[in-house]
Amino acid sequence: MQFSNSNTVTEIVLLGFQNLQGFRFSFFLLLLIIYSVTICGNLLIILVVSFSQSLHSPMYFFLTQLSFSDILLSTTIVPIMLHIVLYEGSSVSFMGCLMQFYFFSTSETLESLLLTMMSYDRYQAICHPLHYTSVMTLTFCVKVVLSCWVMMIAVILALSVTMSYLWFCGPNFIDHFFCDLDPILELSCSDTFFMKIEDMILVIPFGLCPFTVIIISYAYIIITILKIPSVTGRQKTFSTCSSHLAVVSLYYGSLLSIYLFPNTENIKKIFSMFYTVITPLLNPIIYSLSNRDIKQAFKKLMSKMLSGL
Predict the structure, then answer these.
(1) CA distance linking residue 228 with residue 193, whole number of Å
(2) Contacts of 6 (CB under 8 A, 6+ apart)
(3) What is the CA 286 to chain-centroid distance, rounded?
């Protein structure tokens, strides 16, 4: 990634959270705890699924990829955020700002695609159980995940490179805690019309379409569940997708809230913090607490580790 030599902006100042006053160190400590728990929780999900033969299924394979994505997202955002809180602002190089935008956008978009594949997996398992094993094969799942990774790396890289050739002549202050697309474009002295059009075009296949697929999948899942005659059968079937539904609600709920609530910087920061910091924390907690298979696999793994000591 290179940018024009005519740029006068060589670093970006992230203002982050202003007027924290006496809450600064408490907020720093809270963020540090959240980051530590997020990394440990997602790594634990990956380890439990990897070492438990009973969890070697498409749903849990996608879950490990979701955990990788959450680790990438949290590591991209929170360390710089901790520096911002501690020093009441932080400066990053122009290239560093673009790199943060690149990894943030890649992980966020990848998470959207993974949640879509997980909803499709639940659709096949509940609505077409007889064909599930023939459709959701390991080869199919690996190809889909690899395709998602490669596609996101290429598409977001192209967007970032295009952004790097814009002219930035000042100011260099962003009233946010990370380098998002809109705040960066607001600093540009170039015409960003086509850049915004390109972003809107990308929202359709990587934002709107996945969300539509999830809605349709769960519409069919709910219809199928309602057709089950016994209450116990309905509850048991719904429990297989309750964790995923909760994660989807958290993810898209926080994203949609940014557009539904008043367009002020403080509101944006709060909801942005929710889907960049809180959601990666809650994802492994939701799956570990509400998923019986993961809890049993975790107990078995701990028993093996303790017996080996």
Answers:
(1) 52
(2) 167
(3) 15
For residue 3, the one-letter residue type is: F
What is the value of pTM for the model shown? 0.90
Cα-Cα-Cα-Cα torsion 80, 83, 85, 87, nearest 10 degrees, comes to -140
Determine the residue type at 175. Answer: D
Nearest to 151 by CA among 194, 206, 193: 206
Whole-angstrom Cα distance, residue 8 to residue 306? 59
Q: How far apart (Å, rounded) are the C-alpha atoms in residues 135 and 304? A: 34
- Please tell me the distance from the alpha carbon of residue 27 to that of residue 67, in angstroms, as a whole number: 25
Give the residue from 72, 17, 71, 7 showing the smallest Cα distance to 43: 71
260-290 pLDDT, tens digit each: 665 666 778 888 888 899 999 998 888 877 7
Give the CA count within 13 Å in the CB-facing half-sphere of 112.
25
Give the CA count within 13 Å in the CB-facing half-sphere of 34: 24
Q: What is the pLDDT of residue 103?
A: 94
Tens-place pLDDT, residues 190-225: 888 888 887 787 888 888 899 999 999 999 999 999
Placement of tokens 């006053």 in the chain: 21
How many whole angstroms separate alpha carbon 103 and alpha carbon 32? 20
Confidence grade of residue 158 (pLDDT, cut at 50, 70, 90): confident
Tell me the mean pLDDT in the region 21-45. Answer: 92
**pLDDT tens digit sequence for 217-227:** 999 999 999 99
User: Would you call 132 helix, strand, or coil by DSSP?
Assistant: helix
How far is 90 from 148, CA to CA, in rounded Å? 33
Place of tokens 């993961």: 294
Dist CA 74 CA 67 (whole Å): 10
Which residues have CB under 8 Å from 128's CB, separation 6+? 135
